[in-house]
Amino acid sequence: MDAIVVNNVSKSYGQVQALSDVSFSVGKGEVFGLIGPDGAGKTSMFRILCSLLLPDKGSATVDGFDVVKQMCRPGICR
């Protein structure tokens, strides 16, 4: 089982497309990094994986938990 699975995640801020159909998976125990220039969408991806930001489309799971359907915030757990 993969620790992280990202399928076709997209995120935009108005006219700015931060992420466009990004897909990858990270196996348990695997070391994985996201690199790129400023504005490439790295922070947006990490915020989506932490359920701090919702993707416009696509899906992602972390350790089997769906980052949208099973998000948990103080006082609100789905």
Task: Outline the fold blueprint.
Layout (H helix, E strand, L loop, with lengths): L1 E12 L2 E12 L14 H8 L7 E6 L2 E2 L5 E2 L2 E2 L1
Antiparallel strand pairs: 1-2, 1-3, 3-4, 5-6
Can you tell me about this structure?
By secondary structure, the protein is mainly beta. It is 10% helix and 46% strand. It contains one helix and six strands, in the order E-E-H-E-E-E-E. Strand 1 and strand 2 form a beta hairpin. It is globular and about 35 Å long. The protein starts with a strand and ends with a strand.
Offer a concise description of the structure.
Helices cover 10% and strands 46% of the residues. It is mostly beta strands and 78 residues long. The protein starts with a strand and ends with a strand.
Q: Report helical residue fraction.
A: 10-25%
Q: Report strand order across the widest sheet.
A: 2-1-3-4
Strand segment tally: 6
| Most strands sheet | 4 strands, antiparallel
Based on CA inertia axes, which overall geometry fits?
globular
Unreliable runs: none
SS-derived structural category: mainly beta
C-alpha Rg, in Å?
Answer: 13 Å
**What's the order of the H and E elements?**
EEHEEEE
- State the distance separating the first and last CA atoms: 23 Å
Residue share in β-strands: over 45%
Give the rounded overall mean pLDDT.
Answer: 91
The helix tally amounts to 1
Key features?
78 residues; mainly beta; four-stranded antiparallel sheet; two-stranded antiparallel sheet
